[in-house]
């Protein structure tokens, strides 16, 4: 009987934290495919509602967090191993490093109390030193905290992960796609060993069945070593551009790189800063121990980029770097001034078709009217530090609670009835965009669509902001609801003809 089995010979489940994140949401279905039961710890189960694997009998979802080690140990009870995939690139400063360490200590204590046989952690590759990046220092602090308990830890240290929706790949794709050339600092000539997300997932799953990995720290990388300039050129090739000009310069203004990435890519400057700091070092595996313990066909950087680009082009991105954000709650509108723009329209289409059109809003589809104004608003938001429109959406047709849609995040979703979008743009107040769909009077083939833009201003600046955009409401909001109507009616007519 192996350590992962109970007295009946049945495998004990695997405990996964971070199941809503970029790596975790891809790991769970692969664990299921490998024959494991999985218990996912999430702060809000609604974020997993749209995942194809969330309703499988092998998957159990529990709500909670890692703040309380006693409660955490109860949730871990009966599991054989635990994946620790909690980490925020945004929170990489000294204060947040302390918080990450505290949470990791909680996890280590809970794992020991629950009798877990091992912890598996995906950390960061790189050399520690005087100029170590805050991101890597935070990763190592978590690694040390997890290893402080009695439960053995397997750490896989990875450098840049390339896959559709990863932060690193989105930076590459947007930088190369938006400009015919790029001016870069000296780090463009540094070497790195990026790894494809599929190879990362293989190692994460395979280590469960490889006893030699228990208690070990292993460095994982792809099939080849390249420079960051090489990665830009390979990305350009994958996008069909025969030539991409890179102009290296000896020095740049401090802080300019993260700001430039913030303005030109979907990744905000708070995430871009630790990424850029990590680029200032050579990041290459020092040995091939992991390849001998868990052999697999490693993708080259070119193959990884082509695979990621293929998923983007067909609009099938399994997970994205932005997936891990908190599910926003609808604001409390009970007190203070609240402004509304409410519009209702009848649609000659059944509620299902209308709601489908509503749920396609944003991303490449746009906002059905005055998209140029939305683009201007996105650039304005980006300049002042907001996410802008660059984040787009992971799937052009499907959304779930917590999904990102440009500078919105889904806060409430009732299929064929209601969609609430909470604004994450920089505004002097709280903003919500609501859509409600109901059956029309006397016919199942007609619908009533109500669209409401709500704004709760934060003092005088918020009031001035709302009053200033009122002249644009008919263009933006009126055009949007009418565009949704036209799209739904067109879809319904095509369905009736087929």
**Total count of helical runs of at least 4 residues:** 15
List low-pLDDT spans. 89-93
Q: What is the CATH architecture descriptor of the largest domain?
A: 3-Layer(aba) Sandwich
Count of the domains: 2
Distance between the termini: 57 Å
Number of strands: 19
Q: Report the principal-axis shape.
A: globular
Task: Give a short overview.
Helices cover 36% and strands 20% of the residues. It contains 15 helices and 19 strands.
Describe the model.
This protein has helices spanning 24-33, 69-76, 94-114, 134-146, 167-178, 197-206, 228-238, 256-264, 269-279, 289-293, 301-313, 351-358, 371-383, 459-469, 473-497, and strands at 14-17, 38-42, 59-63, 81-84, 118-124, 153-158, 161-162, 181-184, 191-192, 195-196, 217-220, 226-227, 245-248, 339-347, 404-405, 408-414, 418-423, 429-440, 443-457. It has 2 domains: 14-322, Rossmann fold (3-Layer(aba) Sandwich), CATH 3.40.50; 327-497, START domain (Alpha-D-Glucose-1,6-Bisphosphate, Chain A, domain 4), CATH 3.30.530. Helix 2 (69-76) crosses helix 3 and helix 5 crosses helix 7 (228-238). The radius of gyration is 24 Å and the shape is globular. It is α/β, with parallel strands linked by helices and 498 residues long. Mean pLDDT is 84; it is low at 89-93. Strands 3-2-1-4-5-6-11 form a 7-stranded parallel β-sheet, sandwiched between helices. A 6-stranded antiparallel β-sheet has the order 14-19-18-17-16-15. 36% of the residues lie in helices and 20% in strands. Strand 18 (429-440) and strand 19 (443-457) form a beta hairpin. It contains 15 helices and 19 strands.
